[in-house]
Amino acid sequence: MSTAPSATAPQKRSFTAAASVYVNERTSVAGFVKELGRKAFPDHWSFLLGEVALFAFVVVLISGTFLTFFFQASMAEVHYDGSYVPLKGVEMSVAMASTLDISFDIRGGLFVRQMHHWGALLFVAAIGLHMLRIFFTGAFRKPRELNWVIGFILFILAMAEGFTGYSLPDDLLSGNGLRIIDGMVKGIPLIGTWTSFLLFGGEFPGTQIVGRLYTLHILLLPALVVALVALHLVFVVVHKHTQYAGPGKTQQNAVGPPILPIYAAKAGGFFFIVFGVLALIASMFTINPIWNYGPYDPSPVSAGTQPDWYIGFADGALRLIPPGWEFVWLDRTWSFNILVPLIVLGGFIVTVLIYPFIEAWVKGDKREHHIADRPRNAPTRTAIGAAGVTFYAGLWAAASSDILATHFWLTMEGVIHALQATVIIGPFIAYFITKRVCIALQKKDREIVLHGYESGRIVKLPGGEFIEVHQPLDEYERWRLVSFESYEPLMIRPNARGKITVGQRIRASFSRWFFEDRIAPVSKGELEAGHDGHH
Amino acid sequence: MTRSKRRAGRRHPLATAALLALGLVFTGGAYAALSTGTVAQAEVDPNSQQTIEEGKKLFQANCATCHGLEAQGTDNGPSLIGVGAASVDFQVGTGRMPMQMQGPQAQQKPVQFTDEQVKQLAYYVASLGPGPEIPSDHLVNGGGDAANGAELFRINCAMCHNVAGAGGALTEGKFAPPLTDVSGVHIYEAMVTGPQNMPVFNDLNISPEDKRDVITYLKYVQDNRSPGGFELGSLGPVAEGLFIWIFGLGAIVAITVWITAKSN
């Protein structure tokens, strides 16, 4: 970015330089580029997962724009007259017919449609993996709590985008999905029926819903997603990126290659790789073959009807509810088979959303954290995460209970009962196992720091004693293993008025739960003592 | 004259070749007639006493343990009087009978009898009491209306067999099998006899022509692979989700590792 005066060699200025100067004189963008271009971006594969989500979103945006040229969001009835023989002459909505036309009669339509759908699945999957990375490395701690919340809202918006898109073709599968949503809405006491009528413009399925979902799908939700993605990225720049502990990496700096030129080139190339992978998948693998499903008709429901993977956990929750939870009381039907999953899932989502604040409150920690934790060094958080993952995975698996039954030669009932147990008991088991594993790994790290690696070299001492020589760590490796924060349970102290409040007690008990079992990092004194013992 | 005539006849230098050709045509023709005959069920006479006798022998040797010597049924197997030839042709012809083991439902295994033997068994059982017959060829050759068949299939069959005929789960370990390589005859017979846990779709419920349409649709799905590429088992979103997580995101993660790998 040369802004040097052109007096030295005015006529030799290259086109790039001339163009840069031209642009800069009119926009003063140089300062911004200089600032942004020198942003360091720590290098680790897991730091690219958010980028994957962003790139997948761009692919979805581009392919989706193509689809809007041909898709018609109308529920008017037509007789299909396209190329697909087994649907010829069948009565269906214009939405379904235009989706079939995209699939069979518009050049490249099926490819773009499949890329859009595969891209959407990858988008949400990448968000999921990205969130797991953030959670398990504690990258949501101050000052990034708000960005966690924004990211989580993006996850919810992505699911909403996915679901509205899934429902647009008005095929049998999407209609079945909408019917389940309709049932869930109607299960809410008092307002349920009216809310459903409001959504569908009368009795399900009506003639309104596809048009309304289309507006949400291509206007409102994408606008929100784009706005929040922008905000999310601004925060990433403002906060700097987190980094893993290492020599020279502190809470005050960010160590890594600058964005310009290499990192930007890498990221730009990576976008095309993601695009390419999606194009490859879209060209080789069928997704959502609506021609099999046929037009929506409220009577048939196909075996193996499932939502796309990211809604699976909600479908699974409904499947896991035992029979008989719906009853009539006070002349009203109470659908606890729907209310309980709604409440439980709502609680789960809110807990994940506000987790950064819960953890900060328990720790009483107001400091900024820019060094990402190794998951083992925060055993309780990692264990809570594992419990959450187990809970989610159990619900998720339940959405495919029928496929599990047929493909593993099991009974449906057996699968359901096993998953009910997984969802209820599984998180506790996962919690305890993960916590113990984390603590064991920390102990191993401690051993290694204090005594070095076992080298496998056995030496016979002059006195006849055999010892194994331990190879000491180098300083860089040791830094990585000892530089983590260790918290201790909060002490209950009376406040200014000499009182111990209930809040204090709760907080102290949480803190005890979090930090009672802990392995402290090796201190300098211990290290020296350890070395003294050896030499 | 006679000599030249004879020379032109069986002593002709090409006579051997002609004889060979004739023989081949006859054997080939007979084979073709026989093999198409087994498909069209032409060569086993349903009414001949010999067929029924042969069928009875086969029945008593292979089926009577469970179904009783006179097909009257025992504690281990139901009576077969009145189940019809279609039922036997389906159960034995798809390898479900003789049954592998008692369980939620009979599993398919390699077919144990020749086509001829299956027919003999079927006509023997049919001779015990009237029941659904083996359908004639024009109903099962897939020459109907695929669109009508697809609609009927979605309404009547898809809730168990899946819209693409990929199969599905039922309660207590029972299941609806995939229809991806079932012959037209067997599909028809299954509809009229309701094997295992399947309901009967009689001719008042779905007319023979409509059944033909359903078969036409299934044949269409069998013969025309998905225009979108590999079908991932036609299992719907579960297979798609699994695929994107394992292969899609897996590939991407491998690439992220490659991108951030330190160059040596």
From TrEMBL, chain A:
Residues 19-245 form the Cytochrome b/b6 N-terminal region profile domain. It is an enzyme of class 7 (translocase). Its EC number is 7.1.1.8. Keywords: Membrane, Transmembrane, Transmembrane helix. Its cofactor is heme. It holds the Pfam family Cytochrom_B_N_2. It catalyses: a quinol + 2 Fe(III)-[cytochrome c](out) = a quinone + 2 Fe(II)-[cytochrome c](out) + 2 H(+)(out). The keyword Membrane applies. It comes from the Bacteria. The keyword Membrane applies. The chain crosses the membrane at residues 47-71, 118-136, 148-168, 214-238, 270-291, 338-362, 383-409, 415-434. This is Cytochrome bc1 complex cytochrome b subunit. It comes from Agromyces lapidis.
Automatic annotation (TrEMBL), chain B:
The keyword ATP-binding does not apply. The chain crosses the membrane at residues 242-261. Its main location: membrane. It is found in: Cell membrane. It catalyses: a quinol + 2 Fe(III)-[cytochrome c](out) = a quinone + 2 Fe(II)-[cytochrome c](out) + 2 H(+)(out). Gene3D superfamilies: Cytochrome c-like domain (1.10.760.10). Residues 1-32 form the signal peptide. It is a multi-pass membrane protein. It comes from the Bacteria. Keywords: Cell membrane, Electron transport, Heme, Iron, Membrane, Metal-binding, Repeat, Respiratory chain, Signal, Translocase, Transmembrane, Transmembrane helix, Transport. Its EC number is 7.1.1.8. Residues 50-129, 144-222 form the Cytochrome c domain. InterPro entries: bc1_cytC-su, Cyt_c-like_dom, Cyt_c-like_dom_sf, Cytochrome_c_Oxidase_Subunit, TAT_signal. The cytochrome bc1 complex is composed of a cytochrome b (QcrB), the Rieske iron-sulfur protein (QcrA) and a diheme cytochrome c (QcrC) subunit. This is Cytochrome bc1 complex cytochrome c subunit.
